[in-house]
Amino acid sequence: MTTHKYDPQFTQAVINATGPKATPRIRQITASLIQHLHDFTRENDITIDEWMAGLELMNEAGRMSDDRRNEGQLVCDVFGLETLVDEITYKLASDAKDEPTATAILGPFYRHEAPQLNMGDCIVSGIESTDRTWMHGTVTDFLSGKPIEGAVLDVWHTAPNGLYEQQDPNQPDMNLRGRFTTGKDGKYNFYCLRPVPYPIPYDGPAGKILQALDRHPYRPAHIHFLIKAPGYKPIVTQIFDRQSKYLEDDAVFAVKDSLIVDFVPYQGDPQAEFELHYNFKMATFEDAKKHSVAGTTTESATSLGSKI
Ligand SMILES: [Fe+2]
């Protein structure tokens, strides 16, 4: 009579099947993945029907994904996985004198090659709004405090209907997106809209998971940024409106206190009803290495998201 419910040798036998040419990293993470998958399956007595339901969800996510939509990423997001990976990748030692701008997930709506604009330009096209916002600030080195020249701020947010332009046939291509490059003073400024909360797409597997877990699909109002500068570690982040709903229960768990901002009523500018001031602090690759547990590259920072 065995004291084990299931064959105790089985998991190790699967791990041991890895061949000698597997790289050390692949060997390490695959062994761990197999161990956790098997433990999870045994601990929960997963049946064939339940396993097939999970597989079908993954397959459906794959079928739904294309250049405009990354459903697999969205499924990871509702499980908090992208936020956890973001935290692991960018974590900085708490003894740093100051900290670079906190990071937040890229999300599935980033688009490469947003229009290159001039400072003071407006990223809004074809939308009437009374929430027009003048956003401005400085990009600096987090240790020296010096302004960074040549920093490219890639910005994107939704329209007031809660849709990114690639989700909405009524918006012009690349609406509410732009790239701005800082000069010697590190300063930036542009016009955008005060964003609104929006639901992540819930007509696919991510939505089914939210429904099964009795959760809502909403994200608090936010503006996305991807900031790159020569010699500096890219920053992928979002800033959140302090007045927004869902700051406490973001469907994808991305809110951090230091990223919550105030939209201040603004008078005297015919182009804006609100002003938003925010400074971004970047770390050089060298400083980031000194303080962080893991690095990233520009490519890996933007390898997700929409490719159109
Ligand atoms: Fe977003």
CATH fold naming of the largest domain: Protocatechuate 3,4-Dioxygenase, subunit A
- For the secondary structure, the number of strands is 13
- CATH-defined superfamily of the largest domain: Aromatic compound dioxygenase
| β-sheet strand percentage | 15-25%
Q: Would you state the CATH class of the largest domain?
A: Mainly Beta
Report low-confidence residues grouped into runs of 5 or more: 293-298
**What portion of residues is helical?**
25-40%
H and E string:
HHHHHEEEEEEHEEEEEEEHH
- Going across the biggest sheet, name each strand in turn: 1-4-3-8-9-10
Q: Report the CATH architecture of the largest domain.
A: Sandwich
Look at the structure and give the mean pLDDT: 90
Number of helices: 8
Overview of the structural elements:
InterPro entries: 1_2-HQD/HQD, Catechol_dOase_N, Intradiol_dOase_C, Intradiol_dOase_core, Intradiol_RC_Dioxygenase. Keywords: Dioxygenase, Iron, Metal-binding, Oxidoreductase. This is Aromatic compound dioxygenase. Residues 106-282 form the Intradiol ring-cleavage dioxygenases domain. One of its GO terms (molecular function) is catechol 1,2-dioxygenase activity. The protein is built from 8 helices and 13 strands. The chain is of the alpha/beta class. It folds into 2 domains: 10-64, no CATH class; 71-302, Aromatic compound dioxygenase (Protocatechuate 3,4-Dioxygenase, subunit A), CATH 2.60.130.10. The strands form 3 sheets. Strands 1-4-3-8-9-10 form a 6-stranded mixed β-sheet. Strands 2, 5, 11, 12 and 13 form a 5-stranded mixed β-sheet that branches. Strands 6-7 form a two-stranded antiparallel ribbon. Strand 11 (264-265) and strand 12 form a beta hairpin. Helix 1 runs antiparallel to helix 2 and helix 4 runs parallel beside helix 6 (205-212). The radius of gyration is 22 Å and the shape is globular.
